[in-house]
Design brief:
Length: 233
């Protein structure tokens, strides 16, 4: 069974592969790059749920040969359809999308849905992970409340526009100095798990794949989607 991930992010794909492997889900995750293209969707929803569904529907339309408003593509629609058929035959795979971010309590749950674009301005290059983390720590300098939570909204969209949608959270605190480890990306170096005394970047990828917001959301989808075989979970 194939699913098509509505993301060009290879790191996200590896993480999702690891989560599904832990769950025992018998699926193969394909990305747009496997079909010879990348795509982008204007994420103008005002919730994680709205943006996840925008991404899923944008990619689902592309593999049907349609280009929805707000969606861009760097290949021809015909090429996409040909490569999809070569990989999957006549069966159109469901589309998996997620929208995730970090909500910091003292900042009124910012950056929230803007986590990936936090601190960006029209007249400067986008910030990288290090820049976004530095900005977040500066904004928290005068705050005692360091509480925060990650959010992941995951949606599984079928060919007939039926979909399953799940939102999960992962609670922690923001440290004062980033603590990098061997794993993690994004805000992981500043997101502390108080019961562990470690940031997410300091725990193993295998452990993260079992307890993160994304892991919880995908586990719930796997239980809800009867076409995903999950053994003992």
């Amino acid at each position: 069974m194939h699913i098509l991930l509505a993301s060009n992010n290879e790191h996200k794909r590896r993480e999702i592969d690891g989560i599904l492997k832990h769950l025992g889900a018998t699926v193969t995750v394909l990305q747009p790059c496997d079909l010879g293209f990348s795509f982008d969707v204007v994420e103008d929803g005002d919730t994680f749920a709205a943006n996840a569904l925008l991404k899923a529907r944008g990619l689902a339309a592309l593999i049907r040969g349609e280009l929805l408003p707000g969606t861009s593509l760097d290949a021809s629609l015909e090429t996409v359809k040909e490569k999809l058929h070569a990989l999957c035959g006549s069966q159109v795979p469901p589309v998996l999308a997620d929208d995730s971010g970090i909500c910091v309590h003292a900042l009124d749950n910012r950056p929230g849905i803007y986590s990936a674009r936090y601190g960006n301005t029209p007249d400067a290059p986008p910030l990288d992970d290090t820049g976004r983390n530095a900005l977040l720590l500066r904004e928290l300098e005068d705050h005692q409340d360091r509480g925060a939570h990650y959010v992941c909204n995951a949606v599984l969209l079928y060919e007939d526009d039926r979909y399953l949608q799940i939102q999960e959270t992962w609670h922690g605190e923001i440290v004062k100095i980033p603590r990098d480890g061997k794993t993690g990306f994004g805000y992981d170096p500043v997101f502390l798990l108080p019961h562990r005394g470690e940031t997410v970047a300091e725990i193993s990828q295998s452990e993260k794949d079992q307890i993160s917001h994304r892991a919880k959301a995908l586990a719930a989808l796997a239980r809800a989607a009867d076409w995903i075989s999950v053994s003992g979970k």
